[in-house]
Design goal:
TSUP/Inactive_protease-like, about 75% helix, Probable membrane transporter protein, about 270 residues, globular, mainly alpha, two-stranded antiparallel sheet
């Protein structure tokens, strides 16, 4: 029974994570914590192990979706490497800090974190798009011939992405819940380019974070093995669905999903459900 449940969780996480550029950890982490409370085989899953296992699966999901997005020429590899310059070291630091989290505070902190992000995305249209000076201006043409113009400040990108990498490794979510809003609000990335490029950055930073968690022994290998097939297929499925949605549609799915998951985790942290 539990193996089928994990396959379904992996598929859902991969599809959802790839769809909006999250990476899938937003589903895998709480699911592993809940499963650990039900099945004896997974009773040793702690927040640190849930995060470490999640990041390992995020690598699969992000690789699967990045390959799909690359065929559509939606990934801005040039800026993606710059984000990784900061998020890579940050992910190592975040992996170290997971050992200090207890289950209840972990749920509550994770939920509040997602609510803040959803609020930022809700009010983003009332904020000025170009709030800082860009020292790089980009013109990007995707595989469908659509032309986009946006930009970024290199020092700010590295600085912000360092903290994003730390939080992503800390919460096991791959960083997309922060990367995508930063790209859209501060640097005017189109949503489709932001989500696709986010998955590439997540692939790089989650790989680094996963190595750190493996060294610390924060991976449940049986759970990872059962989650892997669904995560890989879901990564491709989410990328395909994303290509069929408008930019506005992607943001609506992103906001609603974050709020629902956040409420569920906060209530669980307070033992209300």
């Amino acid at each position: 029974m539990f193996w089928l449940l994990l396959v379904i969780v992996g598929l859902a996480a991969g599809t959802f994570g790839s769809l909006i550029g999250l990476g899938g950890g937003i589903i895998i982490v709480p699911s592993l914590m809940f499963i650990g409370q039900i099945f004896p085989e997974f009773s040793n899953i702690t927040p640190s192990i849930a995060v470490g296992t999640s990041l390992l699966l995020v690598v699969l999901t992000s690789l699967s979706s990045t390959l799909f997005f690359a065929k559509q020429k939606r990934v801005d590899f040039q800026s993606g490497w710059l984000y990784f310059l900061g998020s890579g070291p940050g992910s190592i630091l975040g992996a170290y800090f997971t050992r200090y989290f207890k289950a209840d505070s972990f749920f509550i902190a994770f939920g509040l974190f997602m609510i803040v992000i959803s609020i930022i995305l809700t009010i983003k249209d009332r904020l000025p798009v170009k709030r800082i000076h860009w020292d790089v201006s980009r013109t990007f043409v995707d595989g469908f011939g659509q032309k986009y113009e946006y930009g970024y400040h290199r020092v700010m990108v590295v600085t912000i992405s360092f903290f994003i990498g730390m939080l992503s490794s800390l919460f096991g979510i791959g960083g997309g819940s922060l990367l995508v809003p930063v790209m859209i609000i501060l640097f005017a990335y189109p949503p489709h380019v932001a989500t696709a490029t986010s998955m590439f950055i997540i692939l790089l930073s989650s790989s680094v974070g996963s190595i750190t968690h493996l060294i610390q022994g924060n991976v449940h290998f049986l759970a990872a093995l059962l989650l892997a097939p669904g995560a890989w297929l879901g990564g491709k499925a989410g990328a395909w669905i994303s290509s069929k949605l408008s930019g506005k549609g992607l943001l609506i799915v992103f906001r609603v999903s974050l709020i629902l998951m956040a409420i569920r985790m906060i209530l669980n942290g307070f033992h209300i459900i």
